[in-house]
């Protein structure tokens, strides 16, 4: 790959302003036309910020949206796919900060991971934990949540707990950082740490005691955690390891426990019912978190729209990350450059005006020449109708397609921090509209000026769309 000339800085794309007169526009010294074009279409001139603005990591962890996955162990349809370690590797490599481990009794006395009551295959619990340990902080060092769905007997629950203590060692959070689990620490305080989400009884006692020191000697030899020690462990070691992740069902009467924090698990269907009844899931003034997961009837492992979850304050919108669809792309745009944690913002009525001059598409991969193509843009906000605009149709007669057309959109929303721009290049074939490539980004993450929008989906196209963006 050719390197972009270093004469350009990040502000170079805004040097040429359409509001300037011809006399004010002066060429940059020692810069050729080829260098200018190379810079304009380079990755360094991307319209998407590499890191979000104002994303502090020092607030309590319940004040963040967290990149979360569902059925992480699957690589296909949830009724007949193979359970694979590659699911965890791929998801963690993408920066996801919450993975699911569905645990069942193994026939040989060792717990296994699989999708229950289906034709999916299984993998050993230990191999899953070892894989997670190897890749937990590959893409992000911010805290990783393990959402444990436990269907095991008491003896195999103990094996699960002992295995995680042995493998994760000092990375596993086994006691509150400040001596109490009622106040949640920040992502910064939990860097490099692994937290467990485990379902507990509906009326547990407040967490007042920590595990005895002999069970937390994680720097000692692994022999300290041999099977023979099982009978000496506390009553339910696994449940006691859910220091910040004790999981419960959402109470019907909305009377939330105030003794300690919980993660409330809600199905997609119940979430929709809950929000339809105008009951908030933000749990204002509490330390609780909410995790929404796809309905079991999504046998094709499709996804729900996470945007409505975020609108209602849900921290963990758990998606089927093995499925490449718009909802996954939206989730990736939400957490782009954030290391998996995006701080919440209070609703604020805002008028967003967006002007995009569509100049040229480069690198489009179409099957034949002379194909009609056009650019479509969509402004998405969670509390209003989507705004759509498109260019006129142009014929593809080479690697570049010039549009030179202005698209303007505006939307009034209470959630400017949850507003997105989607762009796509489409073609017409036999009277049908076919997508060539597309992309999506948060409005907050867009840069102004002459920039390129990447075209990477759905055909893994490496093309780029040169635009002038004004917000």
Automatic annotation (TrEMBL):
Keywords: Hydrolase, Lipid degradation, Lipid metabolism. The keyword Lipid metabolism applies. The keyword Transport does not apply. GO terms for molecular function: phosphatidylinositol-4,5-bisphosphate phospholipase C activity. InterPro entries: C2_domain_sf, PI-PLC_fam, PLC-like_Pdiesterase_TIM-brl, PLipase_C_PInositol-sp_X_dom, PLipase_C_Pinositol-sp_Y. One of its GO terms (biological process) is release of sequestered calcium ion into cytosol. Residues 1-27 are annotated as: Disordered. Its EC number is 3.1.4.11. PROSITE patterns: PIPLC_X_DOMAIN, PIPLC_Y_DOMAIN. Pfam families: PI-PLC-X (PF00388), PI-PLC-Y (PF00387). SMART domains: PLCXc, PLCYc. Residues 263-344 form the PI-PLC Y-box domain. It catalyses: a 1,2-diacyl-sn-glycero-3-phospho-(1D-myo-inositol-4,5-bisphosphate) + H2O = 1D-myo-inositol 1,4,5-trisphosphate + a 1,2-diacyl-sn-glycerol + H(+). This is Phosphoinositide phospholipase C.
């Amino acid at each position: 790959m050719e390197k972009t000339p270093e004469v350009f800085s990040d502000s170079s794309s805004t040097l040429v302003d359409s509001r300037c007169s011809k006399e004010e526009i002066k060429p940059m010294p020692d810069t050729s036309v080829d260098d200018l074009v190379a810079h304009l279409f380079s990755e360094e001139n991307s319209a998407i910020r590499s890191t979000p603005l104002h994303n502090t990591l020092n607030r309590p962890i319940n004040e963040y949206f967290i990149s979360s996955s569902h059925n992480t162990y699957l690589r296909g349809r949830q009724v007949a796919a193979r359970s694979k370690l590659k699911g965890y590797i791929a998801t963690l490599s993408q920066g996801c900060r919450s993975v699911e481990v569905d645990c069942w009794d193994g026939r040989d006395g060792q717990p296994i991971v699989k999708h229950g009551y289906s034709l999916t295959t299984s993998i050993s619990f230990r191999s899953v934990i070892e894989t997670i340990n190897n890749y937990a902080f590959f893409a992000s060092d911010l805290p990783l949540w393990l959402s444990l769905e436990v269907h095991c007997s008491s003896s195999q629950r103990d094996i699960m707990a002992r295995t995680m203590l042995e493998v994760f060692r000092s990375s596993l959070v086994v006691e509150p950082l400040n001596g109490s689990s009622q106040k949640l620490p920040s992502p910064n305080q939990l860097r490099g740490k692994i937290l467990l989400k485990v379902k507990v009884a509906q009326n547990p006692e407040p967490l007042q005691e920590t595990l005895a020191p002999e069970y937390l000697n994680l720097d000692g030899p692994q022999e300290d955690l041999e099977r023979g020690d099982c009978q000496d462990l506390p009553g339910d070691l696994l449940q006691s390891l859910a220091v910040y992740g004790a999981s419960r069902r959402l109470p019907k009467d909305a009377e939330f426990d105030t003794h300690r924090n919980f993660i409330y698990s809600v199905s997609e269907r119940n979430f929709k019912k809950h929000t339809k009844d105008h009951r908030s899931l933000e749990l204002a003034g509490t330390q609780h978190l909410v995790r929404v997961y796809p309905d079991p009837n999504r046998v094709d492992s499709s996804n729900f729209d996470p945007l409505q979850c975020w609108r209602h304050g849900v921290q963990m919108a758990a998606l089927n990350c093995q499925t490449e669809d718009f909802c996954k792309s939206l989730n990736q745009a939400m957490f782009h450059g954030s290391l998996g944690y995006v701080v919440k913002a209070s609703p604020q009525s805002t008028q967003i005006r967006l002007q995009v001059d569509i100049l040229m598409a480069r690198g489009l991969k179409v099957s034949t020449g002379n194909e009609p193509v056009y650019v479509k843009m969509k402004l998405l906000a969670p509390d209003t109708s989507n705004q759509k605009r498109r260019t006129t149709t142009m014929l593809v007669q080479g690697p570049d397609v010039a549009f030179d057309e202005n698209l303007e959109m505006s939307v009034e929303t209470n959630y400017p921090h949850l507003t997105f721009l989607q762009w796509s290049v489409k073609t017409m074939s036999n009277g049908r509209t076919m997508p060539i490539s597309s992309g999506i980004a948060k409005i907050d993450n867009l840069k102004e000026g002459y920039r390129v929008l990447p075209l990477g989906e759905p055909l893994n196209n490496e093309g780029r769309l040169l635009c002038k963006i004004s917000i």
